[in-house]
Write a structure and sequence with these properties.
2 copies of one chain form a homodimer.
Chain A lengths: L5 H11 L4 E2 L2 H4 L16 E3 L4 H14 L3 E4 L16 E4 L6 E5 L4 E4 L5 H9 L3 E2 L12 H7 L6 H4 L6 E7 L5 E5 L11 H5 L8 E8 L1 E2 L3 E9 L2 H14 L6 E6 H11 L10 E9 L2 H18 L5 E3 L2 H21 L3 E7 L5 H15 L2 E7 L4 E7 L5 H21 L18 H4 L2 H14 L14
């Protein structure tokens, strides 16, 4: 891979201004990794554009001088997608951090990509509006990164994923063309939908510079339940029965296993509710009236007790909600305290077969000796598996992890699932792409990439195995 | 355009069976038009494959022998997308007409493309499930056609459009490759989303042969209101205030103008409710409890009366619902009785500017002398404009219509809207595509087409002006 020439660096400085081109080692360091442990890459430079026009100029230059350009939001990804693994520059979108308009009449928000998702949520909620997509990293991740990965989160069971809210984009294509598609319209079938093409493309087909999102009215009432079960299968049967039996769609439907809750208890050094249970569900119910939500949670609580729940804890105010969510919130931090290296998988399966997946994963853990904790979004079939390095030596970890991951993916795929529900393929899962999609599908995907980025300058070394 | 050779026809017969290749004039006739008036094209043959494999063989042959292949669902499109305008064959999917599985545990349905949308809805509703997308043609249109056009309908205001429900597809690409993407998973970010690439591509990038749709629990309660206003602007102000002021998202929010209601009254030769009002809203509210829906409709009714509604008619049983919807349901039929040729536009604008659009369209009608009736989905900004030929001579109609359409599109685009919300570009709007999307966007769209269909055999003569 050729190094950036001095003349190229000089042209980058002309495009974005000298202060927005970083090359000193200590300045580059924050851009060498994302939230995925164990993977890093030092870019040759970090370039911080201030507009779509500047990004277009950078991309035109990259096509001319042939250097890799890796777009980066706020670096909270979990698949290594924002690392400059082939050298070249990181194109950091951090300066494009403004909410441009909250349009209350049309329930729309227009925003730049580096706005923090949680911040955007707070701003719209202050106006009685609701942007439901809530990835775990919402206090630090960017809305542009969410779109690049088509991020989900716990509320996806009722409210869907990022794609469901994007009605318009401005983006710069790899050749430097600036395109717009859609806007403040909730229906639009004008030619090919270029917005949906870029959503979930992990920064390999274009750089998104402006986003229009549709919003919902903020549901004024929400109650959360914490429900312990002595038998894991009962917990998952409750999940299925709430949704397909009682026809109630909770806003969140999370589960945690005993190992996870116990780990949190030890980490916090205090007793957590129901920590002896084999599994816990957190069930959130929202609606437009208190009576509606009460009717729903009464029905759900009765059902859980019928199925075998040991108890039901109801939280309807911020203080008891905090207590109810405590373990779930700090789970990953807890695991990292036990094992600084934790690889988090996010396979997804049809909801009805979650018990099978969880049992197969437990069997893989037992057979391989790798410590694993499982939790996640039971309502939408998206299961997170924390594979913990613990005190395993580096060689054993590096050799063992891909085999363990492959076994987990094999299990998910055999159950009709997918290898990633919301984290993306990025750098770390690309070797597994051929397990998940066949040769014809891979050829179709590569045709897309080649059509838009014939010189391969935009985020190379991602998604595809070769 | 070369005619199909006899040897080619023979090979088509070998692929799908002789009975499934039609060439007699009277057999071809039903395939010469869709529901768009004034446009027809006679295919050289109609080919009715029975499987994805047969479609793959037909497309491989088309690439070899270079004949156009125009996929067709059930022929209810409104943009001429399923007409063989460049000759060649119609690839009718009518034999792929089975619902393959209703998966109640996972709230999913797996279906072939030629299943009638309304039939699919009935089947899932019988199990307490809900497929909300309801294009006006739902009793005759196919689910595959809905996906090709990314169809909407009145319920889009609350429940979104076709794209929001597709979680998996099997499709045949123009080169004959069979691909699958997704399945019974509601989150999936495995490489580029090939399903979303094909949704809304109007049968020009691939032929969809199997579809997995996510379903919702069927809301058990629904009440509809008919609300007359003496002032059109008041009606639209009510729309905006219900949603952004009261934070209530109705399941439908339709409007009709006086001309439309009066026409229906004359057509039916009976009095319809509130036919003297300048505009009527139909507001549907649904929910999980009767109390919730009652609270919502009380709030909406009060608000409408405050804003200036003359009355509010509440329908909570099938009989009075039928009466309430009578005019809206037969509107298009009524217009066709007055004028056998009616061109229906479906521009979309941000909800808040519907009054501006409606006034500009009324001004265009007045200035040009073309008779127009406006109605549509006020809740999502999707306005239908019926332009009626009446007794205008053919030449005046053919010369005038494009100018009138262009003026309407100019108005919609100037208001931040789009030229088609749910009918697609197809054949009839392609000359207007350059008004709606710029040169960079058109180049990007053409790159997609060329990447997947380099020989241009799949549905040529659609979407693009040249």
């Amino acid at each position: 891979m050729p190094r950036l020439e001095t003349a190229t660096l000089e042209r980058l400085r002309e495009i974005v201004g000298p202060a927005n081109v970083l090359i000193r080692e200590e300045d580059l360091e924050p851009y060498t990794h994302d939230e995925l442990p164990g993977l890093s890459a030092v870019p040759e430079a970090v370039v911080k554009p201030g507009s779509a026009q500047e990004i277009a100029a950078v991309l035109r230059l990259a096509n001319e001088a042939l250097f890799p350009v890796t777009p980066r939001g706020l670096g909270t990804g979990l698949s290594g997608g924002a690392l400059a693994v082939m050298g070249g520059i990181i194109l950091s979108l951090e300066r494009l951090d403004r909410i441009l308009e909250i349009d209350e009449a049309n329930l729309m928000v227009v925003t730049q990509p580096a706005v923090i998702t949680g911040q955007l949520q707070k701003e719209v909620e202050a106006r009685g509006l609701f942007y439901p997509v809530d990835p775990a990293s919402l206090d630090s991740c960017s809305i542009g990164g969410n779109i690049a990965e088509n991020a989900g989160g716990p509320r996806a069971v009722k409210y869907g994923v990022t794609r469901d809210y994007v009605t318009g984009i401005e983006a710069v294509l790899p050749d430097g063309e600036i395109i717009r598609y859609g806007g403040k319209v909730v229906k639009n079938v004008t030619g090919y939908d270029l917005a949906n093409l870029l959503i979930g493309s992990e920064g390999t087909l274009g750089v998104i510079t402006e986003i229009t999102l549709k919003l919902l009215p903020l549901p004024p009432h929400r109650v959360d339940l914490l429900v312990p079960f002595d038998d894991f299968r009962q917990a998952i049967r409750a999940v299925a029965t709430i949704i397909s039996g009682r026809k109630i769609l909770p806003v969140v439907l999370e589960f945690m296993d005993q190992a996870g809750v116990k780990a949190c208890e030890a980490f916090l050094d205090k007793q957590l509710p129901f920590s002896d249970a084999a599994a816990q569900l957190i069930i959130g119910l929202d609606g437009t009236s208190a009576a509606e939500v009460e009717a729903q949670y009464t029905s759900v609580a009765e059902l859980c007790l019928e199925i075998g729940a040991a108890d039901v804890l109801v939280a309807d105010n911020p203080a008891n909600k905090d207590r109810l969510w405590e373990a779930r919130r700090i789970l990953l931090e807890t695991l990292k305290a036990q094992s600084p290296v934790v690889e988090v998988e996010d396979v997804v399966v049809p909801r009805s077969v979650i018990p099978d997946l969880v049992e197969r994963v437990a069997a893989i853990a037992e057979r391989t000796g790798f410590r694993m904790v499982q939790w996640g979004h039971a309502g939408d079939g998206n299961v997170h598996i924390g594979i913990m390095k613990m005190d395993l030596d580096q060689q054993a970890w590096e050799e063992g992890l891909p085999r363990v991951a492959e076994e987990i993916f094999t299990a998910a795929l055999a159950l009709g699932g997918a290898i990633t529900g919301e984290h993306g393929i990025g750098r770390v899962k690309r070797r597994f792409l051929p397990m998940a999609v066949g040769p014809a599908e891979q050829r179709a995907m590569k045709r897309l990439k080649e059509a838009f980025d014939p010189k391969g300058i935009l985020n190379p070394g991602k998604i595809f195995a070769d």
